[in-house]
Amino acid sequence: MGKYSTGALIIYIIGILIFVSAFTTLDFWTIVFAFLILIMIVFVGLKQQLKYNKKQAGYEILGVWRFVDKVSIFAVISFSCAAITIVVSLEMPREDFLFSVFFAAAFLVLGVNRQLKYVARQREQMLQGEVNKHEDKLHHMINQGKVLVGSIGYAKEKIVDAAVKEKISILLDTGRQIFDSVEESPEKVEHLASFLENYLPITVNLLESYVKIEKQKVRSQVAENYMNEVANSLDNIIMVFVRQLESFTLQHMHDISTDLDVLNSLIKLEGLE
Q1: What is the DSSP string of 187-216?
Q2: 209: closest CA among 237, 229, 195?
Q3: 208 and 258 share a domain?
Q4: What sign has the CA pseudo-torsion 127, 130, 134, 140?
Q5: N or C terminus: fewer CB in 10 A for the chain?
Q6: Could you give the CA distance from residue 140 to residue 185 in angstroms, rounded to a whole number?
Q7: 97, 124, 151: which is the final residue of a domain?
């Protein structure tokens, strides 16, 4: 039904019918009782509608829907039952009033408990969602890097010049070691931002341009100069790749050194030296 949940509309209709039926009795307490049930049913309908809305692409929770999303349906039912119990108790004999109040209090405690658990679960889901997004971003960056390293290998296969191919082999070996290290510790990829966004794409572009020029049977002096510049620049690019790998290696050595320090401290504390 377009933007409206069929389930929610059915729930609203049931709630209205109950209230109208109670209203026709012209009994005040019956109307109050039906009104409380109506509130509970309307909230159930809103929850159903929100569940439907969340399935729609690009939906953003705004306004009153934020409140609906943050309140547990079981908490609302418990609070409604507490209110209904109090209303019913007003029609009871005095000796049964305290008994009804006890039940109302029990419903209130149950509602608060349900709401606290619901909020805790929502917070946990939100944190887990952020963790999943972060992990997805890391894996995307790793895959992006692997694709670029693969493009360097593809360019190497097409290049004829042996000296250039040898330099590219060093780039490939170093690049693969970098991303092998990152796969073992994905959090390291965050230190690859500049490497991924600048050095790798530029290297791929340079090599792809080199391949195109090298294929030309007749090359101008400008083209020859460009090829020489690319060949010479590979030495600097290799240095960048090696430094990136060394930074990971040093970090790994630092982690090992820290673990050894902790281990030695524990040995001293336990008097096992």
Answers
A1: GGGGGGHHIIIIIHHHHHHHHHHHHHHHH-
A2: 229
A3: yes
A4: positive
A5: C
A6: 14
A7: 124
Residue 246 lies in a domain: yes
If asked whether residues 58 and 149 sit together in one domain, one would say no
Is 158 in the same domain as 265?
A: yes
The DSSP 8-state label assigned to residue 45 in this structure reads H
Residues 45 and 157 in one domain: no
144 phi and psi, to 5 degrees? -60, -45
Tokens of 146: 């692997």
Is 0.85 surpassed by the pTM of this model? no
For 88-122, the pLDDT digits (tens) are 777 666 666 777 777 778 878 888 888 888 788 87
Q: What is the pLDDT of residues 119-177, one digit of tens each?
A: 888 788 778 777 777 777 778 888 888 888 889 889 889 988 889 899 999 989 988 88
| Polymer length of the chain | 273
